[in-house]
């Protein structure tokens, strides 16, 4: 049912705007272009607002040396752009630009592109990527994220379990220790995330977390402010147990505020429908915390030596069912918002991780249904024990009549889940704490046991054991779902990945143009033609060609022709109609309508009568 609803929403919502994770929309100058004069600045335009780092741009000259550039900034005050000024003079050749920014949902995004001044370099330096990320920093940051989610589940889930499921007073100290464990885990994880935020964004090692300047810069960003607010809220939570009345009134407010510290700094804070998305993210996180934290509480109480009233798991069963409903609705919405199309479900990393999460959730719901079944069976068995206990005193009715008038009638507390608790109920306790003696009941008074049925006292421990096992399985699978969810929050959403793939200069393309070197030799003349096809995809492509002599220097020829043929479709030849632009040959647009391996034919004329034609395969992407 959940998967069916999800697929229906995919069909209805496939045309919504892009969501989360900044994707590079365009660069100025464009990737792979050849300019007559050097640009004064570089400008990148993204699909959403981005944050800039001190090292957001690294520009390398044709020899691979890094250039000194101005400080990065936003072009014309637009938050979705990044601009850096270049040195006053740039020589001829190909330049490589590596960039790294932080998208609005707090995740770093990086890539690179190239442009040439005058003509492409004879030997283009290997494109440099953004600074390599230190794997230790990424591992520690991810571990802190997992721990933060787990601590929130224990803290919030335990608080709700105590208030809604009403366990016995004897269990409250144990559950308060669980809540304190969650508080400390969340405090430690949040502190680690705050310190590691700066090296996580820049890609540096964990030692950079001790840099005061990095921490100061982190506190000026939205993710850093959200983490600082979480620490302040945890301080307020620590004061609540000393004020029980404040706990009942301020507890729910603090739980919502804690959930907002996640929603305000991750996927929900960027893209379409931000207010709805943030409300959905808050509800999703709270439902997850109440369910998983409650499972840990229930598992803690379902101990063979610790009697638990049967009503406690019954109340949690109803609470968990409400959490499942909230998780289903909010999960469907967030999945639609993150994917947006059918192909993204299997064609993107986000979609494949989402499918894994759906499979884990389906398994979790199956185990949860088993737990609900055992809970219902346990409650029914407990009712039978209570009825048997009350009926066992009927043959002694004459003794009750003979009892003193001021005798206190026997109470029948709520049935419990352990065998020890069952015996206590059957023997009975006097109000003063002394055991009430009861003569042995004749077998004739007990009544026959139904065929094939075990006594109630034997059924109840078996049901309690089965419930404990199903809760263990449910908890383990819930932790798996939590881990997958954490991975999902750090994965580029399907919408953004599809848009990034559709842009002229895709993020991470190294480089975005197709470069082919074609050697030739005719009438004693030798050389190489370097042909650049930009962007190397179907549709209009710019063509630039530079002729080099045998010594690697620039060479001139009387004529140069380039054409394209797609043999398996019997398409072409398509003449590129390149013209001499003073040192290189170029055509502003040649239309290649179909993807595939095209045959590029380069004809070089070196004299009035001497020319040669050379063919090379060229891959054209969709």
Structural description of this entry:
This protein has 622 residues and is α+β, with helices and mostly antiparallel strands. The protein folds into four domains: 110 residues, Immunoglobulin-like (Sandwich); 133 residues; 177 residues; 107 residues, Immunoglobulin-like. Helices cover 46% and strands 20% of the residues. The strands form four sheets. It has a five-stranded antiparallel beta sheet, with no helix packed on it. A four-stranded mixed beta sheet has the order 2-7-6-4. Strand 13 and strand 14 form a beta hairpin. Helix 7 runs antiparallel to helix 14. The relative contact order is 0.11. The N terminus is likely disordered. Its main location: membrane. It is a multi-pass membrane protein. InterPro entries: CopC/D, CopC_dom, Cu-R_CopD_dom, Cu-Rt/internalin_Ig-like, Ig_E-set.
What would the keywords be for this entry?
16 strands; cell membrane; elongated; 15 helices; Copper resistance protein CopC; Immunoglobulin-like; copper; single chain; transmembrane; five-stranded antiparallel β-sheet; four-stranded mixed β-sheet; 4 domains; alpha+beta
């Amino acid at each position: 049912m959940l998967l069916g609803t999800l697929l229906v929403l995919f069909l209805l919502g496939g045309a919504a705007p892009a969501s989360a994770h900044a994707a590079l929309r365009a660069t100025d100058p464009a990737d792979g272009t050849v300019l007559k004069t050097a640009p004064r600045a570089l400008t990148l335009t993204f699909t959403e607002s981005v944050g800039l780092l001190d090292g957001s741009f690294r520009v390398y000259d044709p020899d691979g040396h890094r250039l000194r550039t101005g400080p990065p900034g936003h072009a014309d005050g637009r938050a979705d752009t990044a601009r850096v000024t270049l040195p006053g003079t740039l020589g001829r050749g190909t330049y490589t630009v590596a960039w790294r920014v932080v998208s609005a949902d707090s995740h770093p995004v990086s890539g690179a592109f190239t442009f040439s001044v005058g003509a492409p370099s004879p030997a283009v330096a290997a494109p440099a990527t953004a600074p390599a990320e230190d794997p230790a920093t990424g591992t520690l940051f991810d571990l802190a994220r997992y721990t933060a989610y787990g601590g929130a589940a224990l803290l919030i889930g335990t608080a709700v379990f105590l208030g809604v499921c009403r366990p016995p007073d004897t269990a409250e100290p144990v559950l308060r220790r669980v809540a304190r464990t969650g508080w400390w885990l969340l405090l430690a994880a949040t502190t680690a995330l705050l310190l590691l935020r700066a090296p996580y964004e820049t890609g540096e090692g964990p030692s950079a977390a001790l840099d005061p300047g990095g921490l100061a810069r982190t506190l000026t960003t939205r993710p850093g402010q959200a983490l600082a607010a979480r620490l302040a809220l945890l301080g307020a939570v620590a004061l609540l147990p000393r004020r029980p009345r404040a706990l009942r009134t301020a507890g729910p407010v603090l739980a919502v505020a804690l959930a907002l510290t996640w929603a305000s700094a991750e996927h929900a804070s960027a893209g379409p429908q931000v207010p709805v998305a943030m409300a959905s993210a808050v509800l999703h996180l709270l439902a997850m915390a109440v369910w998983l934290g409650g499972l840990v509480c229930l598992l803690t109480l379902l101990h063979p030596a610790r009697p638990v009233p049967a009503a406690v798991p019954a109340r949690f069963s109803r609470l968990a069912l409400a959490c499942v409903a909230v998780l289903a609705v909010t999960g469907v919405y967030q999945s639609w918002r993150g994917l947006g199309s059918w192909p993204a479900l299997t064609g993107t990393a986000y979609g494949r991780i989402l499918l894994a999460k759906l499979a884990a959730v389906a398994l979790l719901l199956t185990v949860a249904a088993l737990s609900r079944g055992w809970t219902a069976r346990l409650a029914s068995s407990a009712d039978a024990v209570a009825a048997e206990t009350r009926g066992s005193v009927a043959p002694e009715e004459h003794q009750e009549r003979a009892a003193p008038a001021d005798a206190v009638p026997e109470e029948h507390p709520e049935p419990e889940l352990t065998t020890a608790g069952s015996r206590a109920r059957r023997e009975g306790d006097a109000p003063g704490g002394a055991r009430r003696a009861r003569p042995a009941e004749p077998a004739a008074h007990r009544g026959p046991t139904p065929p094939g049925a075990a006594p109630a006292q034997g059924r109840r421990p078996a049901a309690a054991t089965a419930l404990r096992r199903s809760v263990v399985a449910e908890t383990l699978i819930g932790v798996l779902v939590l881990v997958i969810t954490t991975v999902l929050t750090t994965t580029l959403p399907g919408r953004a990945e599809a848009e990034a793939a559709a842009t002229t200069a895709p993020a991470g393309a190294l480089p975005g143009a197709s470069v082919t070197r074609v050697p030739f030799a005719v009438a004693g003349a030798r050389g190489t033609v370097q042909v650049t096809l930009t962007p190397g995809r179907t549709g209009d492509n710019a063509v630039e060609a530079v002729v080099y002599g045998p010594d690697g220097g620039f060479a001139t020829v009387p004529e140069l022709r380039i054409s394209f043929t797609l043999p398996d479709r019997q398409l072409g030849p398509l003449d590129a109609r390149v013209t001499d632009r003073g040192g290189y040959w170029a055509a502003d647009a040649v239309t290649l309508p179909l993807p595939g391996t095209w045959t590029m034919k380069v004809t070089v004329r070196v004299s009035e009568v001497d020319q040669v034609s050379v063919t090379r395969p060229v891959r054209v992407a969709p």
